[in-house]
Design brief:
The chain is mainly alpha-helical. The protein has three helices and no strands.
């Protein structure tokens, strides 16, 4: 795109990207409710003590706020959210429900 060899028609997130703010979202292009984004999170084994999870979460959020990480992610067009353990769990559950419905509605079967 930056070399002029491709043209972005739309982006799949709910908000326009800071990297290419002139490219509309799929929703803006008329596909109401459309969202398909990637995301990353940190996980720990089941049974990890809550205080350890809290420390891991605090450390991860601290790293995400560092200038070096902010710059690295921005160059890749990634948006850093960070947040609480509960935010991550809620997001994961919403994704399981949303994509589970999409797979079921598609009729796809595992063999």
């Amino acid at each position: 795109m930056q070399a002029g060899k491709a043209r972005a028609l739309a982006q799949t997130g709910t908000n326009r990207s800071k990297m290419v703010p002139d490219v509309p979202t799929m929703r803006e292009m008329g596909l109401a409710g459309y969202e398909a984004t990637s995301w990353m999170s940190v996980a720990a084994p089941a049974g990890t003590p809550a205080d350890a999870i809290g420390r891991l979460n605090a450390a991860a959020n601290e790293v995400l706020q560092s200038a070096a990480v902010q710059e690295l992610f921005a160059k890749q067009g990634l948006e850093i959210l960070g947040g609480t353990v509960q935010d991550a769990a809620r997001h994961l559950q919403n994704e399981v429900v949303r994509w589970g419905k999409a797979v079921k509605d598609s009729g796809a079967k595992a063999e």
